[in-house]
Amino acid sequence: MANARVIFHIDMNSFYASVEIANHPELKGCPLAIAGKTEERHGIIVTSSYEARKFGVRTTMTVREAKKRCPELIVRHPDFTLYRQTSDRLFAMLKEYTPIIEKASIDEGYLDMSMLRHVHPPTLARSIQNRIARELHLPCSIGIAPNKFLAKMASNIKKPLGITVIRKRELAQCLWLLPIGKMHGVGPKTEQKFISFGIRTIGDLARQDQAFIGQQFGTNGRRLFAFANGCDDRPVDPEAWDRYKSIGHSMTLPRDTHEMKEILSTFHQLAAKLAAQLKKEHVVSYELIVVIRYHDLHTVTRHQKTVQPLQSPADIERFSLSVFQKNWHGEDIRLLGVTLTSFQSMSDSTKQLDLFSYQRDAQNEPLIDLMNKINEQFGNGTILPANRLLKTMKSNDADH
Predict the structure, then answer these.
(1) Catalytic one among 108, 259, 317, 331?
(2) Which residues pair with 310 in a beta bridge?
(3) Domains of the chain: residue spans and CATH
(4) How many CB atoms lie within 10 A of CB 36?
(5) Cβ neighbours of residue 267 under 8 Å, at least 6 residues apart?
(6) Range 257-292 burial, b when 16+ CB lie within 10 A, else e
(7) Residues 208 and 222 sit within 8 Å (Cβ to Cβ)
(8) CA 59 remoteness from chain centre
């Protein structure tokens, strides 16, 4: 069709690790992982080089487990300044090809190439890929399709250094056979719900009754149903990344206080307001700012970036409190404020959101190790987590 769009999705391969290697050539060919809290054994792997992945090192794995699998693993803490500078250089380069470019995250973006009909799309993609490798020393994969969803799915098919084209007439061969969990925008909870209805592949979803999907899964289900059938009319939006500069709330306390109970209550209320606004805008945040105003009006402002996105009230509250406790001097407080910034579309951060629960699970690892040792010595089931014990009790009650 003459009016068909040509959309590129450019996805940098193992971005953090690749940037480290590009700036530290001595790391080339070495198994490398980027992890938060690298000084602790429970630090979580954020990304790893392809050399490390050959040993089984994976995102969400603890540093301790990763080093068991790969004793020679080199672990680096994220260098956000370097990554953002590199990202700025990347997107400045991409804007030379088209002004219609949407930054989806620090390491991926959509380009509307429809105006460049005189150039063969795969040839143009290879030229861009080679230039990024030559000038930034970074690998990337590029998906080419008539819309954003299919372009995103295409870029995931071959990594590293892949170039993949998906046409709507090819959905049955290249998309519908994939597990539903591999579909962009489907998180673990949605995946399990789909599976509970017998929807195990993207094709299963595409062949469902649209009204049934809308009834069971709501607006998001209808959107995913359309995507599964290759339909996505969202434009490439150059202003999407900058639309939300910041979301913030502050509260003046009823009286100047250093009482922890009142401070905790304030952060709880602020986190609830911020999470509701994030949900409304369908974004997550990667940076938090805490404001502490003391009784004498002296004001302290502290920024903190996070490797994983902030979305839920509990995570915002916990992160805010962590920043607060590191900077509070114990004096009476008049006002507390929390601001979120560095946003990303919620649909583009589905996988990263899963890391939060994994980070919390890792913190319980010493307790889990102890429970395993007791069960090994005295028999399986001697000691159980409370939630499993409660389920067992309920099951026994039902049987009787």
Answers:
(1) 108
(2) 285
(3) 17-80 (3.40.1170.60), 182-229 (1.10.150.20), 246-350 (3.30.1490.100)
(4) 18
(5) 317, 320, 321, 324, 336, 338
(6) eeeeeebeebbeebbebbbeebeeeebbbbbbbbbb
(7) no
(8) 11
pLDDT, tens digit, for every residue of 193-226? Answer: 999 999 999 999 999 999 999 999 998 899 999 9
284-316 tens-digit pLDDT: 888 899 999 999 889 999 988 887 788 899 999
Is 11 annotated as a binding-site member?
Answer: yes
Amino acid present at 141: S
Q: Taking the model in full, what pTM does it have?
A: 0.70
331 noted as active-site residue: no
Q: Is 209 annotated as a binding residue?
A: no
* DSSP code string of 123-183: HHHHHHHHHHHHHT---EEEEEESSHHHHHHHHHHSTTT-EEE--GGGHHHHTTTSBGGGS
Q: Are 151 and 144 in contact (CB under 8 A)?
A: yes
